[in-house]
Batch of 4 targets.
Target 1
Amino acid sequence: MTHQIAMRISKTILFLAGLVLVSLVLLGATRAIAIETPVMQSADSLAAAAEEIPEADTPAPLSVAQPVSKPQSKPTSPFVVKRVLQIDEPFVHGYYKWDDAGVPDGEIVITVDLKAESMSVFKGGYEIGATVIKFGDALKPTPTGVFPITQKSKDHISNIYDVPMPYMLRLTNDGIAIHAAEVKWGYGTRGCIGVPEEFARRLFEQVKLGDRVIVTNGKMLDMGDPIVAG
């Protein structure tokens, strides 16, 4: 009898131990699921959040081929023809016209066209003087280009030819200058630009050192044209 009771107690203990073991296994599985579930949800939430980020928030990669904006063009040069003198008389050798009445202050620019045998004086773009000229002969032609006035001499005597050059405005170091001369058809110079004496006097009074003289061979100017060489 005692032996049977002991056997029943042993079976009961084994059964209870089995139940405890099964409970522990189930509890461990449940915890594992409970721990993994938040992690999975977090990953899904991050993926969803990443999909919701607007594309505009992602900086575009730099590209070498991207066009560069061109700089705005500079304002139009103030040295343009704003007025041309009205000349009704025959434009012949020895003739000149000068009219600076009412012309505002401005930089003096002198243009010389060897082909037209003429000179124009602009003040701030307004033509204030025009004359027929004489210029270099075949032995020493007048050079073309842009020349600043480097010297002024009212009663200059040429140290090369020993002749008077009144109201001289030097253009080059080798003797090219603007000066008063007797301007007649068929007469030339050794490269200088000769103008009537009264015109030379008025010009001498107006210009200063550094003012530009633009000498061309066939460059004609009209209203609105830029006063430049070439």
Target 2
Amino acid sequence: MAVSIQLKDKQFFWYDNHNKIKNYNHILDSIRGKSGDCMNIAVCDDEKVFVDLFSSYIKDCVATLDDNNDEFSIESFYSGEQLLEAYNQGKHYDLLFLDIKMKSISGFEAAKVIRESDSKVIIVFITSLGDYILNSFEFKPFWFLIKPVNEDKFKHVLLKAIAEIKGNKTGEYSFFSREIGLVSLPLNRIYYLESILRRVNIYTSNQQYSCYASLTAEEQKLKKYDFVRIHKGFLVNMAQIQRINRLNVVLKNGVVLPLSEHRYKTVYDSFTSYLARCSI
């Protein structure tokens, strides 16, 4: 069954930690980056009560967001066989909530088949046994949820996944900030990212954001958009570089960042190539 939901109110969500959300409905700003596409979400579990529960979580969450160009389609599957048959018929999903322990075809078996033809779908595994998690990394999971699934925790993961999908579709950088909520930034507004402990700070011309992430993971997302790693703690937008010296990189806004000695040649060659491409 597919349900299309037209979004009405753009809202940000505050997420305090993985167990509790404070001031959940506080509106801070808009979700930027309108893709105009339908975001296809699938829920697969062989227990109907969980399919219905997770589908209701999704509907409640996306109904509070607003983007006049975005719709969300939610489809329910009650076995791995039904899910794979949908793929065989040409269906495509942006996000898949997939139970691991199912009869006949398990979530792992279904994910293996799906990954052979679809490397982009975001998979969130759901399980009642945490021991399964260590066996799932070959399927490139986005997240794990352990039953019983708390609604706030489910919505937190859903919002992070939506941010990832919107960023991939729009070419913008999307992330989930505990302090602000779901954010999408035009790439040309970003100067650099800085890693401090387990947080990544994102610096624009006039604002700073922060999220829990790995700089290496963010580098994988952004390197195709001409971001270059200049130091173990800094990832820089080459469009914002003024000049490169042996020991540092000077940005157009005057900020000076350290340049690792062993990265100098790679950064210099990358920046030279970037300038050549931009001059064509």
Target 3
Amino acid sequence: MKKPYLLAAAFTLFTSVVFSQDVIRLQSCSNDMISRQVDSLKTLYGKDGYVLLKEASINMESEFEMPVIVPLTQGSWYQFVFIGDYNSRLYEVRMYDWQERQVIFRQKKWGEIDGNVISYSYIPQFSEFHMMKPVQVNKQKKKNLCGYVMLFKRSGEGNANTAPTTPSADK
């Protein structure tokens, strides 16, 4: 007679533990300054022969990476952009290939020209998924930091031998 009660108690305890864990969910955010930067960069890269493939505004926490997984095609020329909250002090982006090898690392600090924008070009050696991990550090605001990621691909019309225009702070 005690076994059914014990089983019910164990099941109740198990379900409460499983459902009580915090899950980080991708949520969008809105920031007028970031929106202006996004529009400006879309125009800039569009003139350079890039086509916008993916974009997302993301609600981030200070010092926590937000993984973004994207499929890339071998030999194609991509441009990645991460825009962080203007009030953060540090911005980083790391990108890994399918074998979890770090292929890109970029870091910027507040106060640099376009300090909250990290932009880089990348031509993958293999057609496979890659993971981009942006992070920002903000000492005053720990949660609800706005971030924005964009993935552009060089269109066939652009000259593949010409280097793309990039914001001067990334050189």
Target 4
Amino acid sequence: MYFEDYENAKSQERNSDDVYSKPVRAGKRTYFFDVKATKGNDYYLTITESKRKVEQDGKFVYDKHKIFLYKEDFEKFSEGLQEVINYIKERCPVTEARPYNDGYQRSEESGKPAGPGYSDVDFDEL
């Protein structure tokens, strides 16, 4: 998770409706799963996707998208999400590349750099 995302989430004044928060860093995005309470003390979930962008002046801004999920919809939402995830996994095996500190991306299977302009050559084999 971006440090700024986490700090901004912590530094915002917590309202009485905030119950629990779980930030999840996933590549260039951070997802926030926030449990909130209504005035009647009924819980609901907000899911926020936050993506850090650099503006032309070099300052960082965060592009955020949020959905609200109410407890009466948890089961249907969960079933639909799992069905779609299974569909994708069956048809397209997960081969995500993640950025590393050196700026290169590596295949999760091999840990070697991946992406445009990179080949999977092992120089020990030459």
